[in-house]
Amino acid sequence: MKGPISLVLLLLYLTTLPVVASQSPSQAEDFRLKDVYGKDFALSDFRGKVVLLEFFASWCSPCKPEMAELKEIRTTYPQEQLTIISVSFDPSMDTDDVLRSLAANVSADWILARDTVGASDKYGVSIAPTIFLIDRSGGIRYSHAGLTRSKILTPEINQLLSEAPQPATPKVTGYGDLTPAFLLIGIIVVAAGLALLLRKQRRRKSQKLRRQR
Length: 213
Known about the structure:
Blueprint: H1 2-14, E1 32-34, E2 40-42, E3 50-56, H2 63-76, E4 82-88, H3 96-106, E5 111-114, H4 119-122, E6 130-134, E7 140-145, H5 150-161, H6 180-212
Parallel strand pairs: 3-4, 4-5
Antiparallel strand pairs: 1-2, 3-6, 6-7
């Protein structure tokens, strides 16, 4: 009796356990594009470096002052420290010629590209400009929608630069990660076994009483 009852109680307890999982930033979706000079690159090419990824459009009003903010960021952090990638999410309007002209006007010496693969959709971009700061392990650590001043970005970049790359760790789960349906099936099975055991015990008692008579 004690064994089945204890097992039922244990299964009930397991359904209340929380999932125990490592808390880590969401990984940046990889994509491959050509920059405005025809050079192929992928976001994953810069794994191990801190990346500032911007989605913008040349006709976007706040995107123009954002370019000036990024220019200030580039002055503070050279290419060896920080990779900056500006991707136009309107490739039909922003041709390579348009973006090359823009780069020349603002003296942008970082990667500019047209989003011809729907990368902005993967990142859920709905406001221009939108900036993502990605750590050396490829995790999105900070995001900003709308015009973001360099004084906001600088301390965040400093934080990421101060960190060493973290190896990917497998998700560690507890019993709480098991689906409630699976646990319910287990409870039903044990309950059925317990009912069968009680029936057998009653039958034995009944047979014993008959023999005594």
